[in-house]
Amino acid sequence: MLADSRAEAYAARCMVEETARRRDAGRNVTIEASCCKMFASEMVGRVADRAVQIHGGAGYMAEYGVERFYRDVRLFRIYEGTTQIQQLVIARNMLKEIAQE
Ligand SMILES: Cc1cc2nc3c(=O)[nH]c(=O)nc-3n(C[C@H](O)[C@H](O)[C@H](O)COP(=O)(O)OP(=O)(O)OC[C@H]3O[C@@H](n4cnc5c(N)ncnc54)[C@H](O)[C@@H]3O)c2cc1C
Predict the structure, then answer these.
(1) DSSP collapsed to 3 states, 19-46
(2) pTM, rounded to two decimals
């Protein structure tokens, strides 16, 4: 579970860094930025879920930081454009790109 979480966090970091690199180069990153937001938000939810599982019952109790982490990261899928809105942005721009080819 630790390895899965590390690998997924690394994937998200690579996505963000590559998207920033493209943006710095003056490219349009509408799709990539939404991919980053969607993937990282969903990813950190899986990471938090594993963290609770690793800690067992203690991970569920409010006395421990893991429970707070689990609750806090749930917000990422909702604000600054929900996951479903990121999916709309990605899919619509993919169709736009295809129409321009
Ligand atoms: C703690 C917190 C802090 C916030 N801070 C800010 C802030 O600083 N500034 C700010 O402007 N806003 C802020 N918000 C608001 C946040 O951006 C909105 O909650 C978010 O945009 C979702 O809007 P909504 O709550 O009206 O849900 P809705 O838009 O009603 O969405 C409800 C559900 O329907 C889905 N949905 C909606 N439309 C579609 C569609 N077309 N296709 C498929 N699914 C769809 C959504 O993905 C979601 O799952 C904050 C919210 C919270 C909880």
Answers:
(1) HHHHHHCCCCCHHHHHHHHHHHHHHHHH
(2) 0.94
